[in-house]
């Protein structure tokens, strides 16, 4: 058992933190989010130069061959800075999925371009009626000559408006709720029949409702085996959840630091408000949550790395549930302890708070994952 | 990072597991698993067994007879003991007074007392709290006045655990009244057979006799039994409380209780002829406590690993472990009582005696559960209440 970062991870953490504290202040983040694309291509190129875009991609495919712990180091720092660039969509979900399940030609075409910062991706799996159920896929893909034809709608596809390619899940067999019969396709975002209703997200990002109307794709766009994409999707989502857990950790730590500083400086009744025991104990409860969040972000990463599917899912759900609850608590209390200024747009605190709320709504909230974990208890042997 | 135990740690777990399986008497583990009363001899038998093996004081340095285990090995040992239904090694000697003697005691005290703690020859109890000194421990009034080679001790201690079985008690007593309250306190080791000591039981909310008041009336304590310097006992007191908290997360015992809770939820009826575990509302609460326990377990391991690498001494982390550990212990006990529904209502204290052959009420496992739930309310109060722990974190760690 070892809870230390490797020397390489320590260096990665240092260089990323330095870069972000220099280049990614709150006001510049605001400007990026307000720009037409909602993020900065220039920053994306800098992240590529730092080597960050190759973290989750194997060395054979031009990446650094890192695991979920490496991604954790990155995401913790990105969370603190509220980075809006499409890191999770492109690197963790897109690149990670192609690296794990893509064909040799798909890898060759996409992975070096992702590592180099030239191509962006989106992950289009959830649908308007699926909520958080991973097996619920109504979008269809029908055989069409040697290729396929896709029809359906994908909901709240993060970073879709700027993506070059979209991973789209579609049903090729079975009923709408079946785990079997789902296939995964790599679709050119500009393909005929792909249309998007793009919009801003509550946390300063971009997303789109993606409609697929008779989208023709070749046989070579299939990722993994036909009808057999569910385990790939599950693994991708688990990796994504681990990354989001680490992002939440970075935000929770940042919120606690800001709140503690505020308690020590804000004067009321002739003294710093941090002198009041009611607020001290609240701050301690937030600190306990942060300590436990770090433990569970580590559990999530270890889960995402775990070769056994059942173990992986169990650990990831436990972490997502626990961190979702903690994120809610710390986010709400950080705003509360900041008082009026906490509910303004002016301070970064409300932006961290909102990002935590959106993380909870992504890939299943705390209640959803508590339920998944709970239902596993039925299968446990005495 | 790596959350898997190393091959060496797994081998260690197997060694410990095999040893306990072979050495722990079945009638004792049956009592622990069944929530029955444990007597002095139950505790002592297991203590002596482990002492012979050299494992009774996992946290002690090797020079005093500890096994030289890493923090992770100690955690593994704790888990295996709890899972097997071993009685806990009472902390008052091994985990409380012994570290104080090692740190602040003189050579003669170390030589005399430590081997006797290890062997189980001396059963220790605690003389900290007083009726007027609970969370505000430094306001204690028990007095020790120097007369030649002795202190004469007068006063009253309370919330003393299992003192009815004890040979020795460690006492915080006031030896000076000038200055801050913390400055006039001394740490004394007192033989329970000394004339003038009276132990009176306090019947607790579960009806059991676990706790006592201890009265001191002109009790003569040799000056040789002063640990550290006179009036510097507060340093010992704080040191001891820091040590007390490191084991208090109780991860091993929580895991055992969680397993028991699940077993009970599989046996108890839920609604509509289905077992309770199939009741989603109840099962979700088990899931919640299991997830919380997972967070506690890995937080505990992170703290232990950091301490093992010499990065940190017990500090605010220990307080966090105490708060969360006790909250989880309480949640588990609450769910167990709830699990048996109306069979949490009967009060049949005889059923807690292992040998009792009378007619029980409800399932055998139900009898101790309400009492256990009531009893566990103590955990967020003892060892520095959870509110005091939060004050400690606020001050020491957050600088508020």
Could you characterize what this model shows?
The complex is a heterodimer of chains A (382) and B (400). Chain A has 382 residues and is an alpha+beta fold. Chain A has three domains: 7-118, Orthogonal Bundle (Butyryl-Coa Dehydrogenase, subunit A, domain 1), CATH 1.10.540; 122-227, Butyryl-CoA Dehydrogenase, subunit A, domain 2 (Beta Barrel), CATH 2.40.110.10; 231-379, Butyryl-CoA Dehydrogenase, subunit A, domain 3 (Up-down Bundle). Chain A contains eleven helices and ten strands. Chain A has helices spanning 7-23, 26-34, 41-49, 68-81, 87-101, 104-115, 230-265, 277-305, 309-338, 348-360, 366-379; strands at residues 121-124, 140-144, 147-158, 165-171, 182-188, 194-200, 206-217, 222-223, 267-268, 271-272. In chain A, the strands form three sheets. Chain A has a four-stranded mixed β-sheet with strand order 1-4-5-8, with helices on one face. In chain A, strands 2-3-7-6 form a four-stranded antiparallel β-sheet, with no helix packed on it. In chain A, helix 7 (230-265) packs parallel to helix 9. In chain A, 52% of the residues are buried. Chain B has three domains: 7-89, no CATH class; 124-231, Butyryl-CoA Dehydrogenase, subunit A, domain 2, CATH 2.40.110; 247-397, Butyryl-CoA Dehydrogenase, subunit A, domain 3 (Up-down Bundle). In chain B, the strands form two sheets. In chain B, strands 1-4-5-8 form a four-stranded mixed β-sheet. In chain B, helix 1 packs parallel to helix 4 and helix 8 packs parallel to helix 10. Chain B is globular, with a radius of gyration of 22 Å. The mean pLDDT of chain B is 94. Chains A and B meet through helix 7, helix 8, helix 9 and helix 11 of A and helix 8, helix 9, helix 10 and helix 12 of B.
